[in-house]
Amino acid sequence: MRLSRAALLLGAALLPATLAQAQPTAPAPAPAVKPIAFTERTLANGLRVYAIRDTSTPNVSVQMWYDVGSKDDPAGRSGFAHMFEHLMFKATRNLVSEQMDRLTEDVGGNNNASTNDDYTEYHETIPANHLRRLLFAEADRMASLVVEPKSFASERDVVKEELRQNTNARPYGKLFSLYFPAISYTRHPYARGTIGSIDNLDSAQIDDVRAFHATFYRPDNAVLVVSGNFDPAQLNQWVDQYFAKIKRPARPIPRVTTTEPPRTQAISRTVYEANTPLPAVLISYPIPADRDPDSAPLAVLNTILSQGESSRLYQSLVYRDQLAQSAQTYLDVKQGPGNLAVIAIMASGKDVATGEAALHREIARMRDTVASPAELAKAKNQIVTAELLGRETAEGKGRTIAQATIIDGDPHAADRQLAEIGRVTAADVQRVARKYLQDDRSATIRYLPAESANGSKGDTIAVASSVVAQQLVTPPDVEIVTPASAAERIAPPAAGPTIAAATPRPVEFALSNGMRIVVVEKHDLPLLTALLVGRGGGANDPARLPGVNSLAADLLTKGTATRSATDIAQQIETLGGAISSDASWDGSTIDITVKADQAAPALDILADVARNPAFKPDEIERARTQAIDGVQVAIKNPSQLAGLVASRTVLGDTAYGHPLEGTPASLKAISAGDLRSAYTATWAPAQTTLVMVGDVTVAKARQLAETAFANWRATATAPAAAPAPAYPKPRVVVVDLPGAGQAGVVVGRPGLARNDPRFYPTAVANTILGGGFSSRLNQEIRIKRGLAYGAGSSLQAGRQPGLIAGRTSTKNPSAPETVSIILAEMKRLGAEAVTPAELETRKAVLVGNFGRATETTGGIAGTVGGYVVQGVPLSELGAYVSKVAAVDPAAVQAAAGALLDPAAASIVVVGDAKDFLAPLRKAYPQVEVIPAGSLKLETAALR
Description:
globular; six-stranded mixed beta sheet; 32 helices; Cytochrome Bc1 Complex, Chain A, domain 1; 24 strands; alpha+beta; single chain
């Protein structure tokens, strides 16, 4: 069900009896979430239309969901539905290729799509005055998609790069994308991974694509959801104008009717994979379709098992026994039979057999013991809060309705299932655990590092030959659509009058101890986000101890003078909320999100965590081990490692050069005294800001802040000011990662600080270079050449200058080509004036991103918190749009010439060097090659 579909949640456990008395009384059963108000109608051609009106937003979300997914991939064509998703962004009879991006991104909106086992969905969020244009475009690509050889070949290459990036190169990518579905089914086509395989993608033919569109992309197989600011009568008129004329084919829609036989004997497989930093184990159990009445108790069971740091898996495997770096579940619910998977990525030095046994023990405990009343109430409150967060935006509300309609056949299913969850009892949870989580129904995958094989080849996990897939039958009336001539082409309709967007209106005041309070009222949903921001972060790490501020921030929620780490997690999660702490370069944060009626007890916990961290030795060691394991996972990912190496190469020993989260060596060297020093340098009322956003008045916020923080009297011991940065000379660095599924490529150079007068022109220049799908880098690398799943650029501007970089991930042999493209585009931006048309579209991207970032309580709090740590006046929230609008072509060219000149850039490539080193060395004889095992990120020398 939708409210539990979030992939791979962290797990946890019941409190020991000795801690139970320390917990607050569980709140009353979770209150009902107000149902989503929508209208529905079905056109004569079968198109189902749902409308959710919200005049508080200047935006509108348009979503088109088709009842076709990877389960419908033709035989021998796994990955076909997903590849087709890409092709839907190409030309139609009336739209040129990529025009969907012109209609969305170029006006400050966004668009994207996804393919699931059961559906393929396309969504756009745009300023509301562009609604008619998007309805026209969605209807045109439903009725008259152009499928021609050039775009077909290009997008097939892009999908291959997506497979290499997310499945082959990413640690554990094969486990989740390929092996998990393959081991879970013996007959049902759910066994095939959504991404498919290189061989299947290569075997696809253009006529297959046309047949697939004619078979499934039809009005009676689609759901249209419009959510946001619109006039209902006008919407109906436009829907009728553009969609009603699309014909409904007379032939039936092919449906998967295969049933999956019950598993009666446990399955176990062991595989060895390259670039696997830590062993992992996954155990899955079959569960029924989402519309089954048992879905509600299964959702509660899943939450008890894995949601938050007080959940059963986290408490037993990660916290208490320290067997796992992470312990997770995945409640994979579908139209047909799904799975509940429990997953552990082991901690360093822990063997997979121990983790497997621990997972089985927790599953047995779900079967053998009844959840406590407090545990049950906590799970229900967590589900309610998660559902509220999912409904904060027009897109979120629309997604809820569309997914309910496709998966459950009922647009009211989400609200109905929430009501069912409110009625779930502890006995229901135990009943479904006993029914579905039986040992003889389990399927286990042990996923081990290749170097641990010791000569063993391991098992083969592949889609069973008994899996039934449909043959693609070409309909007799397939039309080969060609683009209309310029004279015949129908242009999208004009945009309507602009609806002004409201920017957050923060209200500021200070407590008597100097603590700054910022309040933004937002009363549409009963939610509250509180973000506590301390001045001081990774930029203050001593040169010998990169990562000390990050580790200190992690430990804030791991125990105070009066609360244990388990107490903190249990108490905040009992309120239905979550708490987290983190460090950025310039600040450290602690944040909570709860239902607004739980604000007082939540603020009490927040204050205790900020003011009284214990830094207990056992918690330090636990957090240190987890941090080291996390770093080891990150540095096995070529793109992540390339980013770390680029920062060190470009910024050297300056404040932002070292890895923010540290290295294994530096984390091992951090002492309790180092952590306490980092804390006292950051957390004191005079340099701390509390941001409260949501369903709270200023008067109530003042009362909450006074109660929690007025008597705080700490004084910070801030570190000395950093010297003016001195950057290393540019370098070309290759990190050889044998067996890497892709190469991570970064071209970077020093940038500027946030308070630099050139910030806005540089931000616009960066957006032209690599901000969004239509940016120059993505156009050249993905769209024109199919060399990568995506390419972009980033601008790091804090209290000090950071990295400005172009980056991508590509197949290893293409790395030198992508390097040359990035360098050429950086140079061109400083050498040529940008056209007014391109400039306006890229400025719209920035403005649109800013608007969407401030749609939710968490987004507003994060934006305000970012301004606080960067030292930016909050008045700039209201000036952001006008400052972006004021940037002209001359300012962009000047900023690009000064800050994007590739003559000052370093080049970093991380991948399997044997596939690209020779051509790279020919272009750059000075290239340095560092084996991944010899890389030392503790120093700018990298050795």
